[in-house]
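@channel sequence for tomorrow's demo:
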Amino acid sequence: MELRLLAYVVAIAEEGSISGAARRLHLTQPTLSRQLRETEDRLGVVLFARQGRGLAPTPAGEVLVRRAVTLLAEAESTLRDVRLAAQGMSGHLTVTFAGSGINGPLGGALSRVRRELPRVELQLQESFNDAEMSAGVLDGRFDLAVQRLPMRDARLSTQVWWQEPLTLFLPAGHPLAQSAEPAPLAALGQIPLVVWPRDVSPRSYDEIIALCHSAGVVPQISAEGRSVQTLLALVAARFGAAVLADSHRALRRVGVTPRPLAGTTTTLHLAWRTGDANPLTERIRTVLTDALSPG
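structure tokens (generated this afternoon):
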């Protein structure tokens, strides 16, 4: 049965008359009377009986009215959800992110997403491997990546989202940790380094080696760690210093003193599939970008 006919039946029951329902529905009374007769003929039942000057549902009519109210409400809810999805206001999105993001501005930005888009279901996955994050976006595992060093691929679109200095995380008490001023790049040759294994995060590893080369120093690698927490623990244990995004200072690891590296900048990018037609992806990007806008 058409939803239109169900709406007619509900209106007649609620108004108690054909004339009242016709006015409400902006129909002529003969038209609504004919639609009611055709509906009753199709169902093989009488839906309304005369009661005083009006109409009241028969037992069969009461069943149809109750079910119709539920069906019409569900139909309206479905249409609303469809419209919201088309506007990028509802749906499911998987976001992968770097640790420097969640320790920096990403936490607050995601809070804004939840506040402004309460119908959106977010699935979040942390990753320490830039190549894996980009590859996951390309193969559909992730819809959006918040990462430092996205893959260079025409199928991947990116935008700069956040910039901050790289910081040298030093063992507390080390001579280089005595100053809060930015450390020169030459400091990378004055202390052993603890780094990511290259197989875990090749671009991050190469970035640190490139910084050493630009400073004219030969890096001394003393240890490797596969997470930020491990790297900072190795620093606290005095294995050496770690070069990480400045936002990791929010972890406040005991035994570790952060000191920015002069002249360095690291960038967090938003990365998504080129040509992604999902309006929710664009909506999330807009909210994340607005979250960093002044005011």
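heads up for whoever presents: The chain has three domains: 3-86, 91-163+267-291, 166-264.
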